[in-house]
Amino acid sequence: MKIFDKDLWDEVMATLSKNMLRTFLTTLGVIFAVLILILLLGATTGLSNGFAKIFAGTATNSMFLWSQQTSMPYKGFDKGRRIEFTLDDAELLTKQVPEIELISPRTQLGNFRGTVTVTREGRTSGSSVYGDYPSIDRVSKKRMVEGRFINQSDLDEARKVCVIGLDTYQLLFDKGEKAVGEFIQVNGIYFMVVGVYKRNDNINFEGENSVFLPFSTFSRAFNTGDKIGWMAIMVKSNASVATAERKIKTILKRKYSVHPDDPRAIGSFDFSQIFQGISAFTFVLQGFSFFIGLFSLIAGVIAVSNILLITVKERTKEIGVRRALGATPRIIKTQILMESIVLTVFAGLVGFVISTGLLYVLNVQFGDGEDFPFKNPTVSIVQVTVLFALMVGLSLLIGLIPANRAIKIKPIEALREE
After folding, report:
1. What is the distance between the terminal CA atoms of the chain, rounded to a whole angstrom?
2. CA 89 to CA 47: how far, in whole Å?
3. CB 57 within 8 A of CB 141
4. I need a labelling partner for 125 at 20 to 30 A (CA). Which of 92, 133, 285, 407 fits?
5. Cβ atoms 254, 248 nearer than 8 A
6. Which sign does the torsion angle of CA 56, 57, 61, 62 carry?
7. Chain center to CA of 109
8. φ and ψ at 186, to 5 degrees?
9. How far is CA 264 from CA 138, 217, 261, in A?
10. What is the per-residue pLDDT across 85-103, written as a single tens digit (0 to 9) for each?
11. How far apart are CA 221 and CA 128, in angstroms?
12. Percent of the chain, pLDDT > 70?
């Protein structure tokens, strides 16, 4: 008897439809197992996509470097000496550290995270004011709602232009008023607005209450020379940020006569560690979800096997009659295995349909939110293929138990059974 034989399928469906309630209850275990597995895998993918959304537009292979005070005496210098970076340091690092793709020097009015009063026609805004290179937009992308970001021409010509955040715009301008081409004052100096940006749906280091000036304009306007507050450094994709960081600190400590073991003289933040930690977390979570679903699926398939064992016991006389009429052990075994596969795959399909519907609802509810990292919870074709292949394999394996029990039934003893 072949697998696609019509008589075989008629017998399988007739057997399964004799007791619909028991058949339905048998499939519940597999339905819930697939439901749990798909929901866990889909939710984990949604979480991973949510984190990817947060990091979108931000260079994950980047770091930030700033100067601090020394904590150890060295070469005749007392501890507590303040180090100040300059533009020459950026050029030095670019030449001597091959892992670096770009360095964007930055300076700021006031202290770190400090604010400056920005004014326009009697209105004020307490904003952070930065002097930047255009390359900072590659490290942390700005979403422009009007105009443009600062460019190389602004830097080369030291143009008195600026880019402002949406919060700053709302404090200095009327709703709907065009900002590009208008002037604002920073410490009494006028700058023309060339762009307005708003926060991306990702990590944002400066917020929306900031003002960006070309670095050259900033240094001339506020007499800061070539001093820089810190550097945003993007490392090449095939290089390690940690390796680049060690080389950078070694070079700068040597230049500024800082003790090689001084932990405080140069501050840094490796942004890639956050991204790598989150990636590892989601990977482990996916593996954990798969194993939970796998064991739930095994439990469900075992339930199918137990019911088929009971069915075989109830059909002892029927099997005996079929054997007496010439049915071979292979035919009996094939039918039992097909019943196991049909029950498991049908339950799996039901669980898959329900779970994908629930994932759609979850995406509608949370997928567009900005406060929770969750977006597009889906399962891949590979995962679904592996899942159904696993179900068929488990159903065949578990189905062998009742199938072997069925072919061991002797026709004469079966016919005698009441």
Report:
1. 29
2. 40
3. yes
4. 133
5. no
6. negative
7. 35
8. -120, 115
9. 28, 31, 9
10. 999 999 999 999 999 999 9
11. 16
12. 80
Angstrom distance (rounded) from CA 293 to CA 2: 33
Which tokens belong to 75?
């070469």
What is the token pair recorded at 189?
């100096």
Alpha helices, DSSP H, located in 174-270: 215-221, 241-255
Do 37 and 220 touch, CB atoms closer than 8 A? no
Q: Identify which of 123, 113, 116, 109 has the alpha carbon closest to the alpha carbon of residue 170.
A: 123
What 3 state SS string does 52-82 have?
HHHHCCECCCEEEEEECECCCCECCECCCCE
Both structure tokens of 355: 């779970």
Q: How far is CA 153 from CA 108, 133, 157, 204, in A?
A: 21, 11, 6, 25
Task: State the maximum Cα–Cα separation within the chain, in Å, rounded to a whole number.
Answer: 108
What value, to the nearest 5°, has the Cα angle with vertex 131 and ends 130 and 134?
110
* Residues whose CB is less than 8 angstroms from the CB of residue 194 and which lie 6 or more positions away in sequence, other chains included: 147, 148, 150, 154, 161, 162, 163, 180
Spatial distance between the Cα atoms of 414 and 418, rounded to a whole number of angstroms = 9
Provide the token pair at 342.
Answer: 């049909």
Q: Quote the DSSP letter at residue 140.
A: B
Q: Hunting for tokens 């960081």 — which residue is that?
A: 245
Report the DSSP beta bridge partners of residue 214.
132
Measured CA to CA, the distance from residue 213 to residue 160 in angstroms comes to 8
The string of pLDDT tens digits covering residues 141-187 is: 888 899 999 999 999 999 999 999 999 999 999 988 999 999 999 98
Q: Do the beta carbons of residue 67 and residue 82 sit within 8 Å?
A: yes
